[in-house]
Specification:
The complex is a heterodimer of chains A (about 290) and B (about 140). Chain A has helices at about 5-60, 90-110, 120-130, 145-160, 210-285; strands at about 75-80, 115-120, 135-140, 170-175, 180-190, 205-210. With about 290 residues, chain A is an alpha/beta fold. The chains are: A alpha/beta (about 290), B alpha+beta (about 140).
Chain lengths: ~290, ~140
């Protein structure tokens, strides 16, 4: 029975792998639910503050915050890339990095340099190897990140913007559409871009109470914080569901593989028996 | 006009109202539809909205930012809860704790934090009292 033993041990090893992927799938599923709750909870705030900022970008305030002014000449841009800490989540990170690299190539052709701030181990690893300027990184933020862990990293980029080292700052993360779909997204964080609202076209400004500068400064800080935080929690929710799907298909594949191997094993066994019988029969006939 | 009250944790209220009152830093403001655009900071206190049919809803915010557009009001609060959900006992306890901390202050930082806590606790208690008075 040549090969039967090997096939059996192969089945065993595939079964063990399936057990692991099954367990990872279940862990990801339970974490996904929590991550989704967190994401849904903070989504309204992030959306509303974005609306307010979009309005503000169209207003004509007497105090022009630097984050509201578009710079004419662009020499260097910054990217904050939010990735996962761990792998085994399908093409989630790879798709996002591809998109970033495409944009980088665009900037490169316009002779604009690119700075990268990596959040998450995968981004730090990838952009560390890649030929680009990695200025800051943060990883091991865990499944329930807090804003304080991010502030330092983000501040590096904000300071760079304030000092005029970079002229635009983009935020890159995965958007959680549903469990099956996550799309990588790049959007401009600063200068703030407002969608043009027809109703507000005319020249207008807010009434500020008590004064415009502290309010706008506070609002900006809040805005950046909430956007980066939202990006992070969306990315975590995406990570968990992508991992769940990846592990589910791995488990399914393992099941199919076991079935195939089992058939091969049965055939080999059958062939061995048939051979043995024919040997006995021909041996008996010879006597 | 449309009012959205959101906190960093969740969306508290979203709906159409005819009046909205909020604790702006310079004093309470009442907003009716077609108000001029305005942005102001909020201090801890009560945000109250009046619906078309006269029904009132009351919320507690512990500071934040208020944006007014002619037909849209957005309250970006740090934390917000429905006024009816305020835990009065906890608020009273927080108040006395903050007062004690102010009494034996060790550093300016402690003092500032205790003071902020005290303001918040008092605002919570005030909100409850107002709510009771209105029945």
């Amino acid at each position: 029975m040549a090969g039967a033993k090997e096939i059996r041990s192969k089945i065993k090893s595939v079964q063990n792998t399936a057990k692991i992927t099954k367990a990872m799938e279940m862990v990801a599923a339970s974490k996904m639910r929590k991550a989704q709750d967190r994401m849904r909870a903070s989504r309204p705030y992030a959306m509303k503050i974005r609306n307010v900022l979009a309005h503000l970008a169209q207003a004509n305030p007497e105090y022009q915050h630097p984050y509201l002014k578009d710079r004419d000449e662009i020499k260097r841009v910054g990217y904050i890339v939010i990735s996962t800490d761990r792998g085994l989540c399908g093409g989630l990170n790879t798709n996002m990095f591809k998109k970033v690299i495409n944009e980088m190539a665009d900037w490169d052709s316009q002779e604009v340099e690119v700075d990268v701030c990596a959040i998450g181990k995968k981004a730090a690893g990838f952009f560390g190897r890649f030929k680009c300027n990695l200025v800051a990184k943060a990883d091991h933020l865990g499944d329930s990140p807090s804003m304080e862990d991010l502030i330092g990293t983000v501040k590096v980029m904000l300071d760079a913007y304030d000092e005029g080292k970079i002229d635009r700052l983009f935020l890159v993360h995965n958007i959680f559409v549903n469990t099956m779909t996550q799309t990588p997204d790049i959007h401009q964080l600063i200068p703030v871009r407002g969608e043009i609202d027809e109703e507000l076209e005319h020249h207008w400004d807010y009434i500020y109470e008590p004064e415009s500068k502290p309010i706008i400064d506070g609002l900006m800080l809040r805005f950046i914080e909430s956007q980066v935080y939202q990006g992070l929690v969306e990315n975590i929710a995406s990570e968990m569901s992508a991992r769940m799907i990846a592990m589910k298909s791995a488990t399914d594949n393992a099941g199919e593989l076991i079935k195939e191997l089992q058939t091969i094993y049965n055939k080999a066994r059958q062939a061995a028996i048939t051979q043995e019988i024919s040997e006995i029969v021909s041996g008996a006939a010879a006597v | 006009m449309h009012v959205d009250i959101v906190s960093a944790e969740t969306e508290i209220y979203s709906g159409t109202v005819i009046e909205c009152y909020a604790p702006a830093e310079m004093g309470e403001v009442g907003i009716h539809p077609r108000h001029a655009p305005m942005i102001t900071k909020l201090k801890p206190g009560e945000v109250r909205v009046v619906l078309q049919d006269g029904e009132e809803h009351s919320f507690f915010v512990n500071g934040g930012i208020l944006e007014v557009q002619p037909h849209v009001i957005t309250v970006l609060s740090d934390t917000a809860i429905r006024a009816a959900d305020i835990d009065e006992a906890a608020a009273l306890e927080a108040k006395s704790r903050a007062e004690a901390a102010i009494a034996d202050r060790k550093s300016d930082l402690d003092y500032a934090r205790a003071k902020a806590e005290l303001v918040e606790a008092i605002a919570k208690i005030e909100t409850i009292k107002k709510l009771r008075k209105r029945g």
